[in-house]
């Protein structure tokens, strides 16, 4: 059967899904620990999009189409959301936690990403979204403090309070399902300690207030306990601990992370694969950013910056493979800086200087100056991840969802597997999995084999003719 025919059939299957098991119907709670710049930009934008007041640009789930045109070049490929059956924007109910008491409208105004003119028609709906009290520990985020925090004796009490919040929110809002997307601050770097080694050790650590258990881990634990998928938009350590991976698998809950791939790293993972493809050498890649929002303030603390730095540095090695190409990349200097510079607010500016060399070793330079809006790039990723995590859950997936690597700066690999950073390779992983989720009959030898992927799919296209 041709690809288009299979996709058509999967649209029918998806409709059957709606009518038979009812699991894709009903409201979906989207719960965000952290209602700051990213969280409020996402919520306000999603509400605006469903009212037709703005376009969800940057969102693959809303605008993207399945890449199936090669065997029918003139046909309009179907939209992803029509093929795989995603929750509709109208079915989303937004909630979250923050250490500040500001409602979502006030927080969006303070974040200063979206203009007050844009927010005005949304004001009433945004004001109704009030943050639940947060689980917060100043040892993990040192540069901010706020009044809207839970009091608890043990970290286990905190986790149980979060489970109760999730259940109460779902009941009060008539939600059939929920997803959690961490949009809170970057925490200080945490090593994997014995307390993270197994679920048993972790639960003992929660009861004993172990210092190495961070708020992000407590939120992740609570979501899994409530049977709710959890996405980590920050570089914070959470589900990349054996304990929480074990728990997610045991409870049958999908998760993905870490750290949204938005500005500079997005550019890196677009450019670097091209440089590598041309067999050009790189002697240095110097990246610097100025950022003036609250995220920038938090990252001004060396502990939080180290977490971010680890996340950003991992990217180039996996694309250039200096172990395989020592002549081209064996002596590459990679440096990343972020400077807090309040006048810029959320309008981040990134500079990259790339020292490359070509034929006979002659040096050249590439300069990239990206004047981006951090949260404008991040918001559509939060939407996509919420909808795709819900899809994964409905399709019975659990544990680490590596096919969502496309969205992350520091994607989590499965044990013994390499991390894929190159954006187009990540896109192929994503589409392969979408096809598998859309139509269980799509048989693949190895899901990430580029030979069977949609936009390089010579083998399958041949067999379709
Ligand atoms: N903006 C981007 O493009 C981008 C890209 C990748 C990753 N991120 C990450 O996303 C996260 C959010 O970024 P942002 O720009 O919205 O930052 P922000 O500072 O505007 O918002 C974070 C919010 O989290 C709250 N918070 C902190 N600890 C909390 C806790 N324990 N529980 C509940 N709330 C808590 C803070 O009060 C704040 O309101 C950061 O970790 C950032 O590094 C952002």
TrEMBL record:
Pfam families (alphabetical): Inos-1-P_synth, NAD_binding_5
Show which residues constitute the signal peptide.
none
Which stretches are annotated as coiled coil? none
- Residue limits of the Myo-inositol-1-phosphate synthase GAPDH-like domain? 263-375
Mind listing the GO biological process terms from this record?
A: inositol biosynthetic process; phospholipid biosynthetic process
One annotated GO molecular function: inositol-3-phosphate synthase activity
Q: Which family does it belong to?
A: Belongs to the myo-inositol 1-phosphate synthase family.
Q: What is the name attached to this protein's record?
A: Inositol-3-phosphate synthase
Which species is this record about? Bradymonas sediminis
Which taxonomic lineage is given here?
Bacteria, Deltaproteobacteria, Bradymonadales, Bradymonadaceae, Bradymonas
């Amino acid at each position: 059967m041709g690809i288009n025919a299979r996709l058509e059939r999967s649209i029918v299957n998806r409709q059957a899904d709606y009518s038979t098991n009812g699991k894709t119907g009903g409201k979906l709670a989207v719960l965000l620990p952290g209602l700051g710049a990213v969280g409020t930009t996402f919520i306000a934008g999603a509400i605006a999009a469903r009212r037709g007041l703005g376009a969800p640009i940057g969102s693959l789930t809303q605008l993207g189409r399945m890449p199936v045109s090669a065997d029918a070049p003139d046909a309009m490929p179907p939209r992803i959301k029509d093929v795989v059956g995603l929750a509709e924007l109208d079915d989303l109910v937004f909630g979250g936690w923050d250490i500040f008491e500001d409602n979502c409208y006030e927080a969006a105004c303070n974040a200063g990403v979206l203009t007050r003119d844009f927010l005005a028609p949304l004001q009433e709906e945004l004001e109704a979204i009030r943050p639940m009290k947060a689980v917060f520990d100043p040892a993990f985020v040192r540069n901010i403090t706020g009044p809207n925090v839970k009091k608890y004796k043990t970290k286990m009490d905190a986790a149980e309070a979060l489970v109760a919040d999730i259940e109460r929110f779902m009941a009060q809002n008539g939600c059939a399902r929920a997803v959690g997307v961490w949009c809170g601050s970057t925490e200080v770097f945490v090593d994997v300690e014995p307390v993270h080694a197994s679920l048993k050790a972790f639960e003992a650590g929660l009861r004993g207030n172990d210092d190495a258990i961070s708020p992000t881990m407590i939120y992740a634990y609570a979501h899994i306990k409530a049977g709710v998928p959890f996405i980590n938009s920050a570089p914070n350590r959470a589900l990349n601990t054996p304990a929480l991976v074990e728990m997610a698998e045991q409870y049958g809950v999908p998760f993905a992370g870490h750290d949204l791939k938005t500005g500079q790293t997005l550019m890196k993972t677009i450019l670097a694969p091209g440089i590598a493809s041309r067999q050009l050498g790189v002697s240095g890649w110097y990246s610097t950013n100025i950022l003036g929002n609250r995220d920038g303030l938090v990252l001004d603390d060396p502990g939080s910056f180290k977490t971010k730095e680890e996340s950003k540095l991992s990217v180039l090695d996996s694309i250039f493979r200096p172990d395989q190409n020592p002549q081209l990349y064996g002596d590459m200097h990679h440096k990343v800086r972020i400077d807090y510079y309040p006048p810029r607010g959320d309008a981040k500016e990134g500079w990259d200087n790339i020292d490359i060399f070509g034929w006979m070793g002659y040096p050249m330079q590439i300069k990239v100056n990206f004047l981006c809006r951090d949260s404008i790039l991040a918001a559509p990723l939060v939407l996509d991840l919420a909808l795709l995590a819900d899809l994964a859950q409905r399709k019975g997936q659990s544990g680490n969802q590596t096919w969502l690597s496309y969205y992350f700066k520091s994607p989590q690999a499965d044990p013994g597997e390499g991390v894929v950073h190159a954006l187009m390779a990540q896109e192929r992983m994503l589409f392969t999995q979408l096809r598998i989720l859309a139509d269980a009959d799509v048989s693949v030898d190895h899901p990430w084999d580029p030979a069977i992927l949609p936009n390089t799919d010579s083998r399958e296209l041949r067999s379709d003719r």
